[in-house]
Amino acid sequence: METKIILKRGKESSLDRFHPWIFSGAIARIDGNPNEGDIVAVYDSEGNFRARGHYQIGSITVRILTFEDEPIDFNWWGLRLENAYMMRKALELTNNPQTTCYRLVHGEGDLLPGLIVDIYGSTAVIQAHTVGMYLSRQIIAEALKVIYEDRLISIYDKSSATVPFKAGLNAIDGYLYGSHSEGIVLENGNKFAIDWETGQKTGFFLDQRNNRQLVRHYSKGRNVLNTFCYTGGFSVYGLAGGANSVTSVDSSERAVELAAKNVELNFGTAAAHRAVASDVFDFFKKDTQTYDLIILDPPAFAKHQKALGNALQGYKRLNARAISRIAEGGILFTFSCSQAVNREQFRNAVFSAAAIARRNVRILHQLTQPEDHPINIYHPEGEYLKGLVLYVE
Ligand code: SAH
Hints:
This protein has 393 residues and is α/β, with parallel strands linked by helices. The chain is 28% helix and 29% strand. It has ten helices and 20 strands. It has helices at residues 13-16, 74-90, 131-135, 137-148, 209-218, 233-240, 253-267, 280-286, 308-324, 343-356; strands at residues 3-7, 21-23, 27-31, 39-43, 49-55, 60-66, 101-106, 115-120, 123-128, 154-157, 174-177, 183-187, 190-194, 223-227, 245-250, 273-277, 291-296, 326-336, 361-367, 386-392. It has a seven-stranded mixed β-sheet with strand order 16-15-14-17-18-20-19, with helices on both faces. Strands 2-6-5-4-1-3 form a six-stranded mixed β-sheet. A hairpin with a 5-residue loop joins β4 (39-43) and β5. The structure holds S-adenosyl-L-homocysteine (SAH). S-adenosyl-L-homocysteine is lined by residues 200, 205, 208, 228-231, 233-234, 250-252, 255, 279-280, 297-299.
């Protein structure tokens, strides 16, 4: 028997707005004894069916998969994934000779809460953030094989670091299909070597694709500093745009190696590129020169609301440091990928930084995540990437 989650009177209003989460405080009672990850049905206090989704232990108790009274079977997974695929097809990402990597499934943005699927050429990398999605990984892999047919040669599950630790799943990363372990992809015509087995996240930060194009646009003749460079995405675009020089900085030795490798892959060994393994704050202490274009793309400073205050201080400090190192008439690309920090808070932190650095600053562009990381209008929390491009006098 399927578990029934019965809501308190009046608590169905979030469902009227198609919000994809049910919080524990909205629940009157649970008929059944579900395990984390089970499919459960949600009913309102009048006894009407309202939704079906994955049961979770924690403040979010249900992540909704459907608002229709339909079974979550192979056919359902096939249709939902096909839906995500058709959108990427409409965006001209599924068969694009210039860009062979993209995000196929972006969690709530694709009505698949807790699931990420990234495509790297002929490999799909699955990342489950919930037990329910983790337990569904085989069926998801089977459905992907049907959609892509012979265009997929391997499917890698990389959920060990993202499934809830407390669930005690002892998840081990590995291939659900095939064993192709590494590949070179194209993004806007630039080559990147992706290692999904050992890389951060699914191996590459696909969410900066459009913003990297803008860096290319502004790089001509400039000395570029790319901090928090990871695999050197922005560095490669800077050189492609005709930068005079590019300096890539990351605290991870491995990241700096990857950045250098990707630069070499595109421009050979003679490129005007310097890769520095260093903490960014230490780098700014030792390196005193100015740059014509600086990119700040740090990891999320606030993963939770509780860390908000410190995170905003962190953004302010970092941005003040960078703004003070921008040559006259230079440009700053500054980002925050913290979900807990909203656009307004981020802007204020950056504006305070400009005041601390005593520089005249104007906003040229306000950036966000790309179209293959869509925002579900009923789940505005899904808008996580915020960026500003500033002209610094
Ligand atoms: N801009 C990258 C993604 C950045 S991910 C891209 O376009 O792909 C964040 C990176 O910051 C990681 O590679 C991590 O190793 C690095 N990092 C985290 N803290 C750091 C610090 N204090 N100093 C330098 N690098 C840091």
